[in-house]
Design goal:
Belongs to the AHA1 family. InterPro entries: ASHA1/2-like_C, START-like_dom_sf. Pfam families: AHSA1 (PF08327). By secondary structure, the protein is α+β, with helices and mostly antiparallel strands. The chain has one domain: Alpha-D-Glucose-1,6-Bisphosphate, Chain A, domain 4. Helix content is 24%, strand content 40%. It has a 7-stranded antiparallel sheet with strand order 1-7-6-5-4-3-2. A hairpin with a 6-residue loop joins strand 2 and strand 3. It is globular and about 40 Å long.
Amino acid sequence: MENPKQPITVAATVKAPIQKVWQSFTAPEHSVNWSFASDDWHAPEAENDLRTGGKFRTKMAAKDGSMSFDFVGVYTNVENHKKIEYKLGDGRFVSISFEDLGDSVTVTETFDPENTHPVEFQKAGWQAIMDNFKKYTETL
C-alpha cells in the first residue's frame, strides 16, 4: 500500500562554505558526530559510498545500549555540492538539496514519512538531526 501522507521537509542554513558543508554531511568520520536526534543517542558507525547506485549505512543507538537500528539506503542521484537523493531500505524516498549562498548553505531535506510514528514526531526528530548537523559543521 502506498503511503498517503505528504512528504515532510526540514531545513537549516549553515554558516560555512559549500565544500565544508558537503564534506560534513557526506563523510562518515563527520556524520557519526551529528547523526542522532537527542543527547542520549549516538551514531557509533557509518559507511558511505556516495555515488548513484552506492549504498550507505549509519548505526543509530541509544547510549545506554537499550536499542539500536541501522539507517540504510541506496543513492538514486548524487550531484556534487547540489543534491543527494536516495531510497531507504523500507522503500521511502529522501531528497536533500544544498543551496550555496556564498558564506552559508541552506540544506533542505524532504522525506516520505513512515507509518508508525506521528508526522509531527518524525519531523521533530529529523529537524533535531539537521540542527545537530548545523551546530557540528559550524564549529568544525
